[in-house]
Amino acid sequence: MAVTQQATVTAHLAAYASEIAFAHLPAEVVHAAKRAILDSMGCSIGGSRTEPGRLLLEFFQEIGGRPEAPVLASGVPLPLLHAAHVNAALANVLDVDDALADGHLGATVVPPAVAAAGRCPTRGRDLIAAVTAGYEVSARIGMAIKPSPERFRLVRGLGTFQVFGAASAVGRIIGLGRDAMLSAFGIAGANAPVPSVYKEGYDERPMAWVKNNFGWSAEGGVLGVLLAARGFRGQRSFLDGDRGFWRMAGSDRCDFEIMAGGLGQTYHLVNNSFKPYTCCRYHHAVLDAVGDIMGAHRLSADQVQSVHVRSIWRISEHMNYRPQDVIDAQFSLPYQVAGKVLGRTDRFDWMLTTSLSDPDLLRMADRVTYEEDEEHERLFQTVRQCGATVTIRTPRGEFTATVPHAWGSPPRPISDADLERKFVHLAGPVLGDDRARGVAALVWRLESVGDVRQALGDILGWDGTAA
């Protein structure tokens, strides 16, 4: 779809989101959507085991309200707005959720979409189409409004643009037409959270638990859909022109062709990245390089005298040597490297079962240093390649490894089997391993499921949550 006038961009995206059909999706896109659904559900369920997750669950359960849609981690039915908020916020708590278009799109697409599918009978193929729409709209807006490198160092907000992914996915499930979807976009955009990432802990530690504010982003998207469905009018060209959403989001540039070009022909969802570590994606190539060196040279932790990291500029803000909680630790490169050297990071819940004051971890963390690497930074800014070079000093000498692409990124994809193991590892302690495997099996055959709510309820013991 060629975009010839700026004023048509919002209309193009709204029409796409409202009219996307499962029958027109390529097989690889369907499979990518199922992988995304499985992963995001696991992240949301696993996030309930953290202290921030527990507080969110308690708060929204105390508020109560009309029992419309289930919280994935508990099965407790809440109003759709609140279920979407909780499910989305929990998906990002462990920071093990997917990565695409410099965001974590799954957290604001899959959890609210599954919540909406828990509100009314929804075919599996319609959930797949809705999730695809959410990813495509969210990814395109995120890439189109990405600031210049100079501006990027000052302003960043993921939940800001991801509000449109939530609106697209839930609007498709509820069945909004293109005119109503236009209004939903306008309402959702007006409720988008401010681009607050850099004020969530980078200026002072510890990191704030609101993180990317994905709960509010999901709720804002759903609110737009529910109001638009009732005829509430939203601004119909919210993304367009020189005073469009990109300005509101704090960017200094916008490419409207990226935003709406190739809709229905090019799918960004197939380039989704999945995380094998519970930490910021910027750390993953570093941890891979540490693992490569340790394995190739058969090093034990007691042989590691120092670890020097060369990577992108953003890591300079992650050199916190004494994280105060699990959220803080996700953005502490020294702590993550120490965990990798000591063999802790193979478990997704390692930071939930390890004391932050573990003396072995802290001693190893103190041996980690960092410097910005111009080439890695150039590749990050131009082609979003987040690589790293690591040198480990030992009594036997120094060993260096460079990892241009982290495991889980498109050039080094995680297999379906590994993704399912991740899901069971995250969801099993909450649901039980057998139920977790049952959910995974359901997702892999999702296109044949007649009613997602009923099928999930049969596995998880839900007693019916429809309004």
Describe this structure in words.
- It is a single chain.
- The chain is α+β, with helices and mostly antiparallel strands.
- It folds into two domains: 6-271, 2-methylcitrate dehydratase PrpD; 281-403, 2-methylcitrate dehydratase PrpD (60s Ribosomal Protein L30, Chain: A).
- The chain contains 21 helices and six strands.
- The protein has a four-stranded mixed sheet with strand order 4-3-5-6. It has a two-stranded antiparallel ribbon with strand order 1-2.
- A hairpin with a 6-residue loop joins strand 1 (69-70) and strand 2.
- The chain is globular, with a radius of gyration of 21 Å.
Question: Which keywords apply here?
Answer:
467 residues, alpha+beta, 2-methylcitrate dehydratase PrpD, 60s Ribosomal Protein L30, Chain: A, 2 domains, four-stranded mixed sheet, two-stranded antiparallel sheet, disordered N terminus
Record the SSE blueprint.
Blueprint: H1 9-19, H2 27-47, H3 51-63, E1 69-70, E2 77-78, H4 80-93, H5 105-117, H6 124-144, H7 149-152, H8 158-174, H9 178-190, H10 214-229, H11 245-248, H12 256-260, H13 284-296, E3 306-311, H14 326-330, H15 333-341, H16 350-353, H17 359-365, E4 368-372, H18 374-383, E5 388-394, E6 397-403, H19 416-431, H20 433-444, H21 452-460
Parallel strand pairs: 3-4
Antiparallel strand pairs: 1-2, 3-5, 5-6
Helix pairs in contact: 1-6, 1-8, 1-9, 2-4, 2-5, 2-6, 2-19, 2-20, 3-4, 4-5, 4-10, 5-6, 5-8, 5-10, 6-8, 8-9, 8-10, 9-10, 13-15, 15-17, 19-20, 20-21
